[in-house]
Amino acid sequence: MGENKGMVMRLWKHRTYIISFLTTIFSALCVYKFPIELPFIPEERVYEFSLSIYALLITLIFGFIEWLVNYYADKKSIVNIEFSLSETKYRKQDIIYRDFNADIASVYAKIHLDCYAQNIMDGIIKIKLPTKVDVQAIESYAKYYRIDSKERIVYIELKKLINNNMEERFKDDTEIGFQVIKNDKVVNSDIETVIDGVKRSVNFTTNKLKFTE
Amino acid sequence: MEFIQYKLFIEPSNKRITAIEVPRSDYYSFVRDYINQEYSQIVVPSNVLIAILKEYFLEKKAKIVLIDFLEDDDNNKNEFEYLVETVNNKREYFVNLMEELNFLSGQRTVELKRVRLRYRLDGKVIDFSLSVNGLLSIGGSGEVEKEILYITNYIWEKIKEWL
Questions:
Q1: DSSP notation for B21-70
Q2: Is the ipTM of this complex over 0.85?
Q3: Which of B32, B70, B162 sits opposite A137 (nearest CB)?
Q4: Whose C-alpha in A67, A103, B17, B104 is 20 to 30 A from the C-alpha of A136?
């Protein structure tokens, strides 16, 4: 599903070329199949007249589709969580490999919101940790989340990060951090990050973090 | 001097820290056994290790034997070895050590891995080291059990509010 979405995004970036190409093809096809023959148009001008009309119509249709897509994209809320090895340093890596030192590893994450408050106010991000580690809060970030030690889940309630009275679209970044301590000699496990309780118009993305040693 | 190693766990009641002697067998099996009994491991953060250093240096007139860092940075290591040596010779320099530790800890550029302290209690020597992963190694001729209780209670008081 993620791969399909990536492909659509890549195609969307090149939409100008794709639309020009499709407009030409469809216009030619329409002219061939349904030439516009009107009494006041001389027979030798039917081709160029039809081509102009169809090109105009198809350009308008594609323009409307593009406007519609942009309109809904603007309405879409974005929640992104990006993991990092060190505090305040984020390098947009798809996978972060976190190793241990003296059985300890620190994990930092930046929660980026670009959204309408009403779309996410009931949202909860759940960071699910592997059974081979135990999790503990870092004092300065403990206000942003709740830890279920037995379930090994870090719960981040989005309403704690935002002003729920905001009515306009807003952007906001919040950094969190926690520590894990391993309980097995070898840990080679991923964490899983999910979001619950948000509206369908919310687009949630995250990079991956893998514990290694 | 014989040292005994203990592992600090938060008790299932979530109301105190307890120190369990680490057996010589597989360490991780021992840890998992206690986790299965609903004990939780504890990470002793740098600010708590620094607070312990301060508490023992000022209140128990301890000598600092070692400050070890998680990051392998020779500059930091050499600087702190020098600072510790200076402090042990002239105790008034302790403020410089604290300033440096608090600054680096606040910046999160370095994190403490272990501190080791030695002091006398009723004329008898106590020597302990405490690591970030909750391993406490303690030995001496003094009342070790009483000191373990003091350390565990001290840590609990520092972290219970936000844990």
A1: EPPSS-HHHHHHHHHHTT-EE----HHHHHHHHHHHHHHS-PEEEEEEES
A2: yes
A3: B162
A4: B104
